UniProtKB/TrEMBL annotation:
<dbReference type="InterPro" id="IPR029069">
    <property type="entry name" value="HotDog_dom_sf"/>
</dbReference>
<keyword id="KW-0413">Isomerase</keyword>
<dbReference type="GO" id="GO:0006633">
    <property type="term" value="P:fatty acid biosynthetic process"/>
</dbReference>
<protein>
    <submittedName>
        <fullName>Bifunctional 3-hydroxydecanoyl-ACP dehydratase/trans-2-decenoyl-ACP isomerase</fullName>
        <ecNumber>4.2.1.59</ecNumber>
        <ecNumber>5.3.3.14</ecNumber>
    </submittedName>
</protein>
<dbReference type="GO" id="GO:0034017">
    <property type="term" value="F:trans-2-decenoyl-acyl-carrier-protein isomerase activity"/>
</dbReference>
<dbReference type="Pfam" id="PF07977">
    <property type="entry name" value="FabA"/>
</dbReference>
<dbReference type="GO" id="GO:0019171">
    <property type="term" value="F:(3R)-hydroxyacyl-[acyl-carrier-protein] dehydratase activity"/>
</dbReference>
<keyword id="KW-0456">Lyase</keyword>
<dbReference type="InterPro" id="IPR013114">
    <property type="entry name" value="FabA_FabZ"/>
</dbReference>
Length: 163
């Protein structure tokens, strides 16, 4: 299954999974344009996979302030995008509650995203989904620039809390 830009915007307005359930941030914190693949099976651990894209524009707000005369996308925004996608995965699984980043095991940055880059890709391999005592997903993820993994995160954790 995939989700287009219009559906992503609906997820940011709390219209897709229903009030009180998983949603994406809106405005400048939305780091996703399209989800090209989401599945409850497959991936490295055979527990599910999410693949999404984000189109880079030279006029993004973060390039003006990070850093002066050396604009790069902050790595924390790529990490946040992976948490955003893991929350979407929980909503996609039909689990109730609002998504919250709970943690990450290990993060490694080996490249940067500049204003000249056109598109980045996120990939999540779901390791496990827990339903009790609260809905929680565990995944490994990466941000790809021109086919090369430049951010890698192990043991991303997102939980769903009651609205």
């Amino acid at each position: 299954m995939q989700f287009c830009q219009q559906t992503i915007q609906a997820m940011a307005k709390d219209e897709y999974f229903g009030p009180g359930n998983a949603q994406l941030p809106k405005g400048q914190m939305l780091m996703i344009d399209e989800i090209s693949h989401i599945s409850r099976s497959g991936g490295r651990y055979q527990q599910g996979q999410v693949i999404a894209q984000f189109k880079i524009r030279p006029d993004f707000w973060f390039f003006d302030c990070h850093f002066q005369n050396d604009p790069v996308m902050p790595g924390c925004l790529g990490l946040d995008a992976m948490w955003q996608l893991l929350g979407v995965f929980l909503g996609f699984c039909g689990l109730p509650g609002r998504g919250r980043a709970i943690g990450v095991g290990n993060v490694r940055f080996s490249g940067q995203i500049y204003p000249r880059h056109e598109v980045i890709e996120y990939r999540l391999d779901i390791k496990r989904v827990f339903q009790k005592p609260l809905a929680l997903a565990l995944a490994d993820g990466a941000v790809y620039q021109q086919g090369k993994a430049i951010y890698q995160a192990q043991d991303l954790k997102v939980g769903l809390v009651p609205a």
